[in-house]
Amino acid sequence: MKQSMFKIAENSALTSNVFKMKLIGDVSDITRSGQFINIKLDGLYLRRPISVFDRDDESVTIIYKVVGHGTEQMSKMQVGEELDVLTGLGNGYNTSLCKEHAVLLGGGVGVPPLYMLAKTLIKEGKKVSVVLGFNTKDEVFCEEDFKKLGADVKVTTVDGSYGIKGFVTDALPENFDHFFTCGPEPMLKAVYKATNTSGQMSFEERMGCGFGACMGCSCKTLTGYKRICKDGPVMLKEEILWED
Amino acid sequence: MGRLNVNLCGIELDNPIIPASGTFGYGYEYADLYDINILGTFSFKGTTKDPRFGNPTPRIAECYSGMINAVGLQNPGVEKVISEELPKLKECFDKKVMANVGGFSVDEYVYTAKKLDKEEQVGWIEVNISCPNVHGGGIAFGTCPDNAALITKAVKEAVSKPVIVKLSPNVTDIVAIAKAVEEAGADAISLINTMLGMRIDLRTRKPVIANKMGGFSGPAIFPVALRMVYQVAHAVNIPVIGMGGVSSAEDVIEMMLAGATAVQVGAANLVDPYVCKDIIEKLPQVMDKYNINNLNEIIGGVK
Predict the structure, then answer these.
(1) The domain B6-297 belongs to what CATH superfamily?
(2) Are residues A121 and A41 part of one domain?
(3) Residue extents of the structural domains in chain B
(4) Which of A9, A150, B119, B161 has an alpha carbon 20 to 30 Å from B171's alpha carbon atom?
């Protein structure tokens, strides 16, 4: 983990409430897809944990949805402004668990962390199928980004206004050996039931610190208590314990 | 002796800065960030007799200048703390650590305190009778002078190391509780634990915290904490450790002027993991600014 200042190089709207922000700074601690950064904002006490969409040698890009005061404030920030950011948080996805063909299933703002993952898997010579799920056509983002990487991309919408009508589980490809997913918990549960391969799921929880100190985001797993921020956010399918 | 040194129940601290229990794990998470030997000491995660998962999530809610937590004493239990956490801590921390003990009955407090007392790494036992997040324990002992005294006496009789009793601010008369634990044999008092608080999510019309309420901490509670430290420090003859919203070197000096011998830093660690290091580095220059040669000269300076 590292704490440092980042400069905003881009902050643009992808949909009516989803934004893409590029931050320039020290990204050396971001080592895996599926990790997150934790952003301090003026006047707000707790940092905002946001998953990493992509990184290069000098910048990290995030995609976030405006859901509260913090993300609303972020959406109004200008290029050139600076942010205090903790980087290199969370375990991230382990791509070595996929042999040949990965399916990536993202729901809403669960889509962004799959981008750097897809890039990594493709670089490793693996076949990548992506299913992006949204409620409706106006909410769709990032479809082109995944296509440009050379992934096989399908989009589902709940109301059928774009792509395949239904949920990500209605568009599962054949013959994959491992899945990676991120999205709302009902979607994760559906993916868990609809798949019979191994896989990895990224979870979300209200966090205090984001680096394992406060026990604010603990969960029970089949392999013991885990902190979503530090031992997760990515969990193996085999260790997940659904509580209700 | 340096100008930051203070003495806490017979143990010399290089400086008065002590990360508070529950915000610093068992230390080693922070050792990845900086050398934690620069700290006065730290109080480790509240430890109970048996392992505990704690409360359901969400356990965290944000507030203006602070946060609410309802973790509920998640910890691996005293046996594992001794067999796994303390050895890991030993690799990165050479000083005596403050062992924070929670419980649900007098026997449990005594059991846990006794075990930790035998550990060479432990310098003090901090008895948490003020956790607002567990039922039938913690705060139930800290809101009544007789119960507070009962726990204090029982732990004090069972251990050899200095006993610090951590008090709750959620009481009508903090001085009465402080006097009761002093009389029962406490070697020091730490205060304040978190204040009971609540937030409601307007979209769901439900409490943000699964446990409905939780402990409110952060800069917002600093004035309340300072007031209570002042009241208690002037009413007892044992050292007081001040805490509650402390986030800067200036806050530390204010706490000491109010009567604190040492100062704990809690929520601030979660937002700025380097805050204790920054405070320790800035203390000398803030002392210079306010013409303070040695911290010991200001303890309880405000009458």
Answers:
(1) Aldolase class I (3.20.20.70)
(2) no
(3) 6-297
(4) B161
Whether A126 and A78 map to the same domain: the answer is no
Assess whether A183 and A207 both reside in one domain: no
Task: Specify the CATH number for the domain of residue A69.
Answer: 2.40.30.10
Tell me whether residue B131 is one of the annotated catalytic residues.
yes
Q: Count chain A–chain B contacts defined by CB atoms under 8 A.
A: 88
Distance from CA of A221 to the nearest CA of B (A): 11
Complex ipTM value: 0.92
Is 70 exceeded by the pLDDT of residue B136? no
Instruction: Profile chain A (244 residues) by mean pLDDT over runs of 10 residues.
Output: 96 97 97 97 96 97 95 97 97 96 96 97 96 97 96 96 96 94 95 95 94 94 94 96 81
Question: Binning pLDDT at 50, 70 and 90, where does residue B141 land?
Answer: confident
What is the residue type of B187? D
Name the minimum distance, in Å, from the CA of B210 to any CA of chain A.
Answer: 11
Say yes or no: A109 and A186 in one domain: yes
Secondary structure of chain B as H, E, C letters: CCCCCEEECCEEECCCEEECCCCCCCCHHHHCCCCHHHCCCCECCCECCCCECCCCCCCEEEECCEEEECCCCCECCHHHHHHHHHHHHHCCCCCCEEEEECCCCHHHHHHHHHHHHCCCCEEEEEEECCCCCCCCCCHHHHCCHHHHHHHHHHHHHHCCCCEEEECCCCCCCHHHHHHHHHHCCCCEEEECCCEEEECEECCCCEECCCCCEEEEECHHHHHHHHHHHHHHHCCCCCCEEECCCCCCHHHHHHHHHHCCCEEEECCHHHHCCCHHHHHHHHHHHHHHHCCCCCHHHCCCCCC
**pTM of the entire predicted model:** 0.94
A21 and A57 co-located in one domain = yes
A113 lies in which domain range? Answer: 95-195
CATH of the domain at A154: 3.40.50.80
Res. B133: pLDDT tops 70 = no
Instruction: Name the residue of chain A whose CA is nearest to B266's CA.
Output: A214
Q: Are B117 and B160 in contact (CB under 8 A)?
A: yes
Contacts of B271 in chain A (CB under 8 A): 40, 45-47, 209
Q: Which among A78, A77, A62 is positioned nearest to A18, based on CA atoms?
A: A62
Q: Does A116 share its domain with A145?
A: yes
Total of domains in chain A: 3
**CATH number, domain with residue A232:** 2.10.240.10
**Residues A162, A165, A170, A173, Cα dihedral to 10°:** -40
Q: Give A-chain residues touching B222 at CB under 8 angstroms.
A: none
